Amino acid sequence: MIVQVFTIGLVVSFIGSILPGTLSIIVIQLGLENKLKTALKFALAVAFTEYPYAWIAVRFESWITSSVFVQENFELLAAIVMISLGVIGLWSARKPTGGKQVSFMESGFRRGLILGFLSPQAIPWWIGVVAYLKAEGWIIIDTSLRMNSFVLGTAIGALASLTLLATVSQKLSGLFQNNIYVRFMPGALLLFFGLYAFHEYLF
């Protein structure tokens, strides 16, 4: 069962991390900008942040799924974070600045850690996944060892998925070299997803 929960966590996380989101979009951008080393450091940092968020989702899944108030506020928080990052991304692409902002935008691991922890939409996503897997009987997380095996699988799955995205994007970088739209793509997509999430929250 330990190997099973680890494998399921890895596979589900691998698939989920490929889906368009705040962090996967940034990894793709770094790859298209031919910054593979930075993208890999970013992916490693995101894998570190995936662990505590998945742990929280597993540990408190029953309590959170029973609280409509908590669920709705997670949606609102995720919308605010994505809109904010989208606006900042578009502003940075339009008017690059120097100093600490450039250092942060060019960093890999540090940027991944900060943005990973600022992207709490992973928690409600994992809550839904864990609830479904439990209901279907695919996972039984009744011991600390099984829970940590599952969560470790989610971290490794995220790392593998983002590494694949970075590598594939880097292979395609020659097609988009010096393309201004590559700089604007992450900010525009994050703004779109954030506004969509905010719309879903309101309506």
Q: Please, could you describe this protein's structure?
A:
This protein has 203 residues and is mainly α. It has one domain (2-202). Helices cover 81% and strands 0% of the residues.
Keywords:
mainly alpha; 81% helix; single chain; 203 residues; 0% strand
Reading the helices and strands in chain order gives HHHHHHHHHH
Provide a count of the helices: 10
Number of strands: 0
Largest sheet geometry? none
Cα Rg: 17 Å
First and last CA, distance: 41 Å
Number of domains: 1
Decide which structural class fits the backbone: mainly alpha
Shape: globular
Q: Which residue ranges are poorly predicted, with pLDDT under 50 across at least 5 consecutive positions?
A: 97-102
What level of helicity do the residues show?
over 70%
- Proportion in β-strands: under 5%
Q: Whole-number average pLDDT? A: 78
